[in-house]
Specification:
Structural class: alpha+beta
Number of strands: 13
Shape: globular
Helix content: 25-40%
Strand content: 25-35%
Distance between the termini: 44 Å
Length: about 325
């Protein structure tokens, strides 16, 4: 007798199959309470609509909103279907200046590295009075269900993490650019760069994160997190070399130490395990869960699930987090 599968199939839906036209379909949906609530959950601020197609000289802002209960906190939302471009970036800044906005949100289904870097630079150099968000939108269907949209943050303001980042001295970490070069060199060698690149997006939801090169198992990179009052703790580990579990070439193992994630998000280990449930878990070893990434879809799912969890659980500023020991042989961590 044939057994029925207990697992549903998750399928990505092209955005233009849902919203055929950016101005006539996508923008009106983003202005609905449903969409504004989803956006509010991602940026941590409840939003209320003011108007759409708001005139700024000869131009029109897609959506003008405000922070709930704050009449003077205007929010400009610029959206596009397709890859980000200079035109929309310039428009967003123009609208914000003309309307006196304090928060700027740029939504697209594909952010190029240059535009993500531009938003990061703006967040780092415009002080705490202006917040810039870059959000990617995707949609998924389960066994042919109605498509469900999901936002993931590509760039977020640094105001909440600035103090924590400044505490980290240059002697504690190496140049981020140098680390990424090392990471990608290993990834290219093992044909996993398409999986590794999306995982770098996790830097934002991890708040205070840096990738530290490790000699463990031939080359591993670790993502850390801490609250302002806590010490750093490793919460993700990329076993890029593949030596830890003899990962097949073309595949990537991601280490997720469940107790560490629970500690920095002020949640329970059981809550973390439930959140990680949709991921392609390869092995549960002691307190660690190992996710084996075999496709770009796997990598995107990992980024989405972890981003959602870390944004939803920013952690407790009162908890003290012990730094994990650096060990090449006596720890299950990478």
């Amino acid at each position: 007798m044939e057994l029925k599968s207990q697992v549903a199939k998750l399928t990505r839906v092209q955005l233009r199959e849902i919203w055929g036209d950016e101005a006539r379909n996508f923008t009106p949906w983003l202005a609905t309470d449903e969409a504004l609530n989803l956006l509010g959950e991602v940026i941590g601020r409840e939003l209320e609509l003011i108007d759409t197609e708001v005139a700024v000289g000869p131009y029109s802002a897609d959506i003008l909103a405000k922070a709930a209960g704050q009449e003077d906190h205007k929010v400009v939302i610029e959206n596009q279907l397709g890859k980000t471009d200079h035109d929309h970036l310039g428009k967003m800044i123009t609208y914000a200046a003309g309307l006196g906005a304090k928060t700027l949100i740029w939504i697209s289904d594909r952010f190029c590295d240059e535009h993500r870097a531009a938003l990061d630079w703006l967040n780092q150099n415009t002080g705490e009075k202006l917040d810039f968000y870059g959000l990617e939108i995707r949609a998924f269907s389960i066994d042919g269900s109605r498509p469900a949209p999901q936002f993931s943050a590509i760039s977020i303001p640094n105001s909440a993490t600035k103090a924590a980042r400044e505490e980290l001295s240059s002697s504690e970490r190496r140049s981020k650019s140098q680390l990424i070069v090392e990471l990608m060199a290993l990834a290219v060698k093992r044909h996993i760069e398409k999986f590794t690149t999306p995982l770098l997006k996790l830097e934002n939801p991890l708040d205070c994160v840096w990738f530290s090169a490790s000699r463990a198992y031939g080359g591993s990179f670790r993502g850390w997190r801490r609250s302002i009052d806590g010490k750093p703790k490793m919460v993700i580990g990329l076993n890029v070399s593949g030596q830890r579990k003899q990962t097949p070439e073309g595949q990537l193992d991601l280490w997720l130490p469940v107790p560490s994630i629970a500690a920095v998000t002020d949640t329970s280990a059981e809550e973390v395990r439930q959140a990680l449930g949709p991921l392609p878990v390869y092995l549960k070893e002691n307190v660690d869960w190992i996710v084996r990434i075999k496709s770009e879809n796997d990598a995107e799912m990992v980024v989405q699930v972890l981003s959602d969890y870390f944004y939803a659980h920013p952690g407790s500023s009162g908890s003290e987090v012990e730094e994990p020991l650096e060990s090449d042989s006596n720890s299950t961590q990478m």
